[in-house]
Automatic annotation (TrEMBL):
Residues 269-283 form the Glucose-methanol-choline oxidoreductase N-terminal domain. GO terms for molecular function: choline dehydrogenase activity; flavin adenine dinucleotide binding. Its cofactor is FAD. It is an enzyme of class 1 (oxidoreductase). It comes from the Bacteria. FAD binds at residue 229. This is Choline dehydrogenase, mitochondrial. The keyword Glycosyltransferase does not apply. The keyword Oxidoreductase applies. It holds the Pfam family GMC_oxred_N.
Length: 554
């Protein structure tokens, strides 16, 4: 840390930050500093796919956030994992490669008035870093038009299969949901095994993909780990406008001031970025003043518009088929699982948290898939709890386009204090209706002939719950986050009073202009949450931002 002046400072070495560091430091004339509050990704369980079980809830790799008691969850508070290590959430997430639906990005373009965000203009930014296994050997022109090969972000098929999941897939087709061989072509309707960000049975996180070896070998690139940004620094220019000139960074021993001659890029995620902005005086003025912080820019949207995918977990006991519950119930079974992974890099230790996916409609009123299933050959009472002692599978279903909106707000002027996270789940009538209809659809799928041989028995929630009111309340009792917070620093048109960044991700100043030298590049800028897992859409956003930052320097 002997050098404290750089051209570009990137705050957060997560999914977006790693890609940005790679793209921007490729210019040998740009000195880039990447700051990460967590440590290096040298913990073995980060890299073994099933190791997410050891990373979530572990202070070595997780911020250990919890939500506020949520009325929609009948007063419950949830664990809210966020990656705190190189690679960020890509080091602890479900590894599912998912873009969402073309309509998501077309809606962003309409909402912001900027065609750069429509599906056709986002597709090249998805392809730019993709390395899809299906293009390793065979050249399929139709597939290649939608997917990339040779990029840093590896996409592979899973190295396992389960009889119970195959049966569930057949049951969904019997219920009228088609099979698909590509969830990422613009419409993700159908059932299939998920494709994952792995390489030969190992997790492929953003640090592996974008930092090593490229960035680490560049003399113009510097990485600080275990360094937490306490606040941004602003300069007032002669015309009265603002410029972000750097940040204060706590190293664990001292507070260091770093300066950026060109730009500061905030990529601390949907929770961290609004927290840092608020601590720096950028956010809702009443909130800042209540904590003794002088507002630099009154932006009511900072920390607002929090969206997330809430999953409702239905568990079904089964007979005559193996699931992980019993496979991993003995020392011998665990030893065989470990041996298979050691020899083949396959089997349960190579598992993503969810293996089979389904995208469909909760009811006929929707013209597009509005719900997603994550189906697993296991069951437990809650994440982190032991597996059940009987064979079972779990069909978790989430509303892809929730209307509920929550908040992220600092609790104090101290950067060490976690912010208050209030997702406000199930706070709209439509969200509660979708929850009830989703549970009914799950029951209809499970009743199909393909699953009859396994005698599925609804263990959770229980068939005694039938009415909309009962099922909606039940969802509040058993639902949990699927770890997709988005939207807390949303981009918008100039006339949008809740916008935080413009369509080039430059932070607004609350007076009709932008704060020079400051952008936000992470899932927080999403106006609405995509219809699927959000890690790869975050990379797409970072790909665009890197190009715009480079172009601005010319």
């Amino acid at each position: 840390m002997s050098e404290t002046t750089f051209d570009t400072i990137i705050i957060g070495a997560g999914t977006a930050g790693c890609l940005l560091a790679n793209r921007l430091s490729a210019d040998p004339n740009r000195r880039v500093l990447l700051i990460e509050a967590g440590g290096k990704d040298d913990y073995l369980w980060i890299h073994i796919p099933v190791g997410y079980l050891h990373c979530i809830g572990n202070p070595r790799t997780d911020w250990l956030y919890k939500t506020e008691p949520d009325p929609g969850l009948n007063g419950r508070s949830l664990r809210y994992p966020r990656g705190k290590t190189l690679g960020g959430c890509s080091s602890i997430n479900g590894m599912i490669y998912m873009r969402g639906q073309a309509r998501d990005y077309d809606a962003w373009a309409r909402a912001t008035g900027d065609a750069a965000w429509n599906w056709d203009n986002c597709l090249p930014d998805f392809r730019a870093h993709e390395n899809h296994y299906r293009l390793d050997r065979a050249q399929d022109p139709a597939f290649a038009a939608l997917h990339g090969h040779g990029g840093e972000w590896r996409v592979e098929r899973q190295r396992l299969r389960w009889d119970i999941l195959d049966a569930f897939a057949r049951a969904t087709q019997q219920a009228g949901i088609p099979a698909t061989d590509d969830f990422n072509c613009g419409t993700n309707e159908g059932v299939s095994y998920f494709e994952v960000n792995q390489r030969k049975g190992w997790r492929w996180n953003a640090a592996k993909a974008f930092l090593r070896p490229a960035c680490m070998a560049r003399p113009n690139f510097e990485l600080w780990t275990r360094a937490q940004v306490s606040r941004l620094l602003f300069d007032t220019l002669p015309d009265g406008s603002l410029r972000c000139g750097g940040a204060q960074v706590w190293t664990g021993q001292e507070m260091v001031t770093v300066r950026a001659s060109r730009e500061v890029v905030l990529s601390a995620g949907s929770i961290g970025s609004p927290q840092i902005l608020q601590l720096s005086g950028v956010g809702p003025a009443p909130l800042l003043q209540s904590h003794g912080i002088t507002p630099v820019a009154h932006l009511p949207g900072v920390g607002a518009n929090l969206q997330d995918h809430l999953q409702i977990r239905a568990v079904f006991k089964v007979q005559g088929v193996k699931t992980l519950n019993t496979l991993a119930s003995s020392l011998w079974g665990k030893a065989m699982i470990g041996l298979e992974y050691a020899i083949k890099r396959s089997g349960p230790m190579s598992m993503a948290p969810s293996q089979l996916g389904v995208f469909t409609r909760s009811s006929a009123q929707y013209a597009h898939p509005n719900i997603q299933y994550h189906v697993q050959p296991l069951s437990l009472d809650a994440f982190g709890e032991p597996l059940h002692g009987f064979n079972a599978f779990t069909a978790s279903v989430c509303n892809l386009n929730p209307g509920s909106r929550g908040t992220v707000a600092i609790r104090s002027p101290r950067f060490e204090d976690a912010p208050a996270i209030a997702p406000n789940y199930l706070s709209t009538d439509e969200d509660r209706k979708v929850a009830a209809d989703s549970l009914r659809l799950t029951r209809r799928i499970v009743a199909q002939p393909a699953l009859v041989p396994y005698q599925p028995e609804e263990y959770r929630p229980g068939t005694q719950f039938q009415t909309d009111a009962e099922l909606a309340r039940l969802a509040g009792d058993i639902a949990t986050t699927i770890f997709h917070p988005a939207g807390t620093t949303r981009m918008g048109a100039a006339a949008d009073p809740m916008a935080v960044v413009d369509t080039r991700l430059r932070v607004l100043d609350g007076r009709g202009g932008t704060i020079a030298g400051l952008r936000v590049v992470d899932a927080g800028v999403m106006p609405t949450i995509p219809s699927g897992n959000i890690n790869s859409p975050t990379l797409m956003i970072a790909e665009k931002a890197a190009r715009w930052i480079r172009e601005a320097a010319v």
